[in-house]
């Protein structure tokens, strides 16, 4: 499953959320992550995030695409992070 | 989704923000998601510290190291968690009993030959004689009574098989005979590089099961090597590595420019290795619908399934039937 995850959280928690998501997904832009992930791992990730987020103020959007085949990604301008097999 | 990452640049690998960071010599920072990482393959000159080495095992991430020439030199493994004395004892007993050992050795070779012929069949017209020779040798497998006899048969089959490469591959690539340590021509270099990737892949799958990688059947279980991974790799070498080689050469993806020659030793340069690995990874994650499991299974998973089948065989659950590609 391919996931795009965006968040808008209080300034205090931005870094915490970013650091947490880095363990699971690939950072694409400020407050945007994407990548392939299994259902189970996504659940685990979100339940851990639940401890960080403040439900009253913060928002988190998760876009799921069942197959990465159905998504095309075009980048205009600078590509910020290149996810590569090789480093 | 567990991915492998290949590090070719020089730099530093460290734990930061509770995930893996790679900082290359130009100070570019790259973060790697730990939860999605299966193993890291390190080809470049990389510094790392104990903080990272203490952190990786928590997530079961494996570090594979390769030397300057791209040969496998070793692995840093997490503490083995899947241990089962019962399975290991049974596994050892199957080595101790010569007939049981012979059965498994025959199974491995039979499957390897099946995949070898499968590769050759596409070029049936030109190499009819070689195919016939191999099919004749194949009949001897059933009759063999000793392991070394079996090894001899395998050696001869391999010889015919490598001869057929001259027809299968494009004109500018030829092979006279298989030469390891060191490979002297491009085709040998490709086979060696591919096989060493295969061994590490099989070994890391074995580590996920209860099997002991040192107790083997076809290869003599000796000290200093994980010979069970050599046994199982036998099945997958023609199925995965060789077909990647054919694809790369015949589609002119890898050309003679991708090889370096140093004092008669031929090896892939960095560009070549990257091309090879990209195709190899693609192949490994290709899925095929499994007939019994009724779901899609990747080539990588097929390796693990082979280990499970062996365990079932050892504990007397189900007789081992080696993988024979049906697709």
TrEMBL record, chain A:
Pfam families xrefs: CRISPR_Cas2 (PF09827)
UniProt keyword list: Antiviral defense, Endonuclease, Hydrolase, Magnesium, Metal-binding, Nuclease
Name of the protein in its database record: CRISPR-associated endoribonuclease Cas2
EC number in record: 3.1.-.-
NCBIfam families given in the database record: cas2
GO molecular function annotation: hydrolase activity; metal ion binding; RNA endonuclease activity
Oligomeric and partner information: Homodimer, forms a heterotetramer with a Cas1 homodimer.
Keyword flag Transferase: no
Species of provenance: Caldisalinibacter kiritimatiensis
Transmembrane segments: none
Cross-referenced Gene3D superfamilies: 3.30.70.240
UniProtKB/TrEMBL annotation, chain B:
Stretches of the chain forming a coiled coil according to its record: 113-147
Keyword Transmembrane helix: no
One of the protein's GO biological processes: defense response to virus
Keywords: Antiviral defense, Coiled coil, DNA-binding, Endonuclease, Hydrolase, Magnesium, Manganese, Metal-binding, Nuclease
Enzyme Commission identifier(s): 3.1.-.-
GO MF term set: DNA binding; DNA endonuclease activity; hydrolase activity; metal ion binding
Cofactor entry: Mg(2+); Mn(2+)
Top-level EC class as recorded in UniProt: hydrolase
UniProt binding sites for Mn(2+): 154, 219, 234
Keyword Chloroplast applies: no
Family under the similarity heading: Belongs to the CRISPR-associated endonuclease Cas1 family.
Subunit structure: Homodimer, forms a heterotetramer with a Cas2 homodimer.
HAMAP family: Cas1 (MF_01470)
Function: CRISPR (clustered regularly interspaced short palindromic repeat), is an adaptive immune system that provides protection against mobile genetic elements (viruses, transposable elements and conjugative plasmids). CRISPR clusters contain spacers, sequences complementary to antecedent mobile elements, and target invading nucleic acids. CRISPR clusters are transcribed and processed into CRISPR RNA (crRNA). Acts as a dsDNA endonuclease. Involved in the integration of spacer DNA into the CRISPR cassette.
Protein name per UniProt: CRISPR-associated endonuclease Cas1
């Amino acid at each position: 499953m391919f996931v795009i995850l965006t968040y808008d959280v209080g300034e205090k928690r931005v870094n915490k959320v970013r650091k947490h998501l880095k363990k699971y997904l690939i950072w694409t832009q400020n407050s945007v992550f994407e990548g392939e992930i299994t259902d189970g791992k996504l659940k685990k990730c979100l339940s851990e995030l639940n401890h960080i987020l403040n439900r009253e103020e913060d928002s988190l959007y998760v876009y799921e695409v069942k197959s990465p085949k159905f998504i095309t990604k075009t980048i205009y301008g600078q590509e910020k992070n290149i996810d590569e097999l090789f480093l | 989704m567990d991915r492998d990452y290949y590090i070719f640049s020089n730099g530093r690998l460290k734990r930061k923000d509770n995930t893996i960071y790679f900082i290359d010599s130009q100070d570019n920072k790259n973060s790697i998601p730990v939860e999605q990482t299966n193993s890291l393959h390190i080809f470049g000159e990389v510094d790392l510290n104990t903080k990272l080495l203490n952190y990786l095992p928590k997530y079961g991430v494996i570090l594979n190291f390769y030397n300057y020439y791209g040969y496998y030199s070793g692995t840093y493994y997490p503490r083995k968690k899947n241990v089962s004395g019962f399975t290991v004892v049974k596994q050892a007993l199957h080595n101790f009993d010569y007939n049981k050992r012979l059965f498994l050795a025959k199974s491995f070779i039979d499957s390897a030959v099946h995949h070898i012929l499968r590769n050759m069949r596409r070029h049936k017209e030109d190499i009819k004689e070689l195919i016939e020779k191999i099919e004749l040798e194949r009949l001897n497998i059933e009759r063999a009574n000793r392991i070394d006899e079996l090894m001899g048969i395998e050696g001869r089959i391999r010889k015919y098989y490598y001869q057929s490469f001259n027809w299968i591959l494009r004109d500018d690539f030829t092979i006279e005979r298989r030469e390891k340590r060191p490979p002297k021509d491009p085709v040998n270099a490709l086979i060696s590089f591919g096989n060493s990737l295969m061994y590490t892949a099989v070994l890391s799958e074995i580590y996920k099961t209860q099997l002991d990688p040192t107790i083997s059947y076809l290869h003599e279980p000796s000290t200093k090597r994980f010979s069970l991974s050599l046994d199982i790799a036998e099945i997958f070498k023609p199925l995965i590595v060789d077909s990647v080689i054919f694809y790369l050469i015949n589609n002119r993806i890898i050309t003679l420019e991708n090889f370096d020659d140093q004092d008669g030793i031929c090896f892939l340069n960095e560009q070549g290795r990257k091309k090879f690995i990209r195709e190899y990874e693609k192949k490994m994650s290709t899925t095929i619908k499994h007939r019994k499991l009724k779901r899609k299974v990747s080539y990588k998973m097929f390796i693990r399934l082979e280990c499970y089948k062996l365990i079932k065989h050892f504990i007397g659950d189900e007789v081992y039937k080696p993988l024979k590609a049906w697709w």
